[in-house]
Write a structure and sequence with these properties.
Layout (H helix, E strand, L loop, with lengths): L1 E4 L5 E7 L7 E7 L7 H12 L3 E5 L16 H12 L3 H16 L4 E10 L1 H12 L4 E5 L18 E6 L7 H13 L3 E6 L16 H19 L2
Organism: Rhizorhabdus wittichii
Keywords: Hydrolase
Protein name: Dienelactone hydrolase family protein
Length: 231
């Protein structure tokens, strides 16, 4: 576990997973779903470390409740998720991600290249990080609301990969069409839409886990990170 200095003088926690060989590796900031830095998110960090990345998962909810982990699939958990989401400050969150990116770059075990991968809530934050957090590359899994922030794309927008579930009830067909059209007009943006997949299709223990879509998205993510983060 690491403690990272925030831009406004506080500190927040981050789970850390490092490659076994100890050499300089590309860094990855893994941005959680609303569920917190839970076993699934820590497992993603561990997998990335086995693949040769220095991965961290910062606590993105620390401004409301430090190290919150809960299950939104229960009635009480859903109410908590909605309350936390309502009070969530997106701009401060992106600045916290920028602090995490800077922290990673300063580590002796980091090669200097740092990417961001986000899921759901973290998917939108990953997209914004490509423009505002100094990331070298970003991957967003089923991010909600990205279609509303496409104007964040500018000349400095980092290469970004979007994984979109065709049956995602939070990302309707109109939003998917907007993302696909933006990708056609933006060389730095790649969008893949997965037929038959629902929101959270890559969460291995989730009710909507889709093995084929998850495997394809993971393969594309690995190739994307190899292309943009390996020096």
């Amino acid at each position: 576990m690491a403690r990272i200095d925030s831009f406004d003088g506080d500190r927040f926690d981050a789970y850390v997973a490092a490659p076994a060989d100890g050499g300089a590796a590309p860094g990855i900031v893994v941005i959680q779903e609303i569920r917190g830095v839970n076993e699934d998110i820590r497992g993603i960090c561990d997998r990335l470390a086995r693949q040769g990345h220095l991965a961290i998962a910062p606590d993105m909810l620390w401004r409301q409740e430090r190290n919150a982990v809960f299950d939104p699939d229960t009635p009480a958990g859903w109410d908590k998720a909605m309350a936390l989401h309502e009070g969530f400050d997106e701009d401060k969150a992106v600045r916290d991600i920028a602090s995490a990116v800077d922290w990673l770059r300063a580590q002796p075990g980091c090669s200097g290249k740092v990417g961001v991968i986000g899921y759901c809530l973290g998917g939108k934050l990953a997209f914004l990080s490509a423009a505002r957090a100094g990331a070298d590359a970003a991957v967003a899994y089923y991010g909600i609301g990205i279609e509303h922030v496409l104007d964040a794309i500018d000349d400095g927008f980092a290469p970004t990969l979007l994984h979109v579930a065709a049956l995602d009830r939070f990302v309707p067909a109109e939003a998917q069409a907007a993302l696909a059209e933006q990708a056609r007009r933006t060389p730095a943006l790649t969008t893949h839409i997965y037929p038959g997949a629902h929101h959270a299709f890559a969460r291995s223990e989730g009710v909507h886990f889709h093995a084929d879509a998850s495997a394809t998205a993971q393969r594309r993510t690995e190739q994307f990170l190899q292309r943009h983060l390996r020096v």
